[in-house]
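Protocol step 4 of 6: structure prediction from sequence.
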Amino acid sequence: MKKLLFQFDTDTYPAVFDTVVAYDGGADHVIGHGGLTPDNVTALVEGAIFTRAPKDKKNTAIFVGGSDIVAGEALFAAVQRHFFYGFQVSVMLDSNGSNTTAAAAVAKLAASGTLNGKKAVVLAGTGPVGQRAAAMLAREGAKVTLTARKMERAVQACEHIKARFEVDVTPVEAFDNDARANAIEHANIVLATGAAGVELLTAEQWQTNSNIEMIADANATPPLGIGGTDMMDKGIDRHGKIIWGAIGFGALKLALHRACIAQLFTDNKQVLDAEAIFALAKAMASAA
């Protein structure tokens, strides 16, 4: 029986990246639907849960994606509200790679040093990856600060993280590189999750900071988010700090994404969100 993955995307067009990884993860067919909301997804979910016998439902799964994590969370919840005993399929949330990218980055940091009790700063953290990474760091015991160019956006993101994960993250307004340099002055861990091609820190702004122990940058498009690093860095030492570049931890991100897709088809009761995906990432990082 064919393994069918239905790609439910909150954007107009389902992400090509997610489609490719879905096939690489073991799906036989990927069927994409864009522009989905909690109000228009009912018939699609019903089509997924009513069409196969109980023993065969493990061969149908749903992947929720899109660029907006808040919209993705709402759609993810709406999909599950249509499930009932005997009629459900496995489902995964990864809006804009939020869970898999954040989990891979934080898992590599956790494998490189101690997170518990450390001061961590997520630069430009209001996007899907930044919010998820901040939550994962906080759940590992780090004291997390999240920056944004506007305080309102930082506060909104931190409130959303609190509501979803019940952890406290401190919002900080940091409009430019100098403000971000001030934000990381006492940080032990720095994770950059800004927009592609935007430098958040110059090399000089972190290289002489004796408090920083580890840095990760999720940006693989030049200029990188953190100057003086390389996208290929794989836990290497630069100026006394352990550095992870986007491609450096990207291998784990892709392997994790594929592993999650494969796990969806192990039975029809998998629910893969931040917690489950991060747990798998840590296991994979420690085994590497």
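Step 5 (inspection) to follow. The chain has two domains: 4-97+252-287, 101-249.
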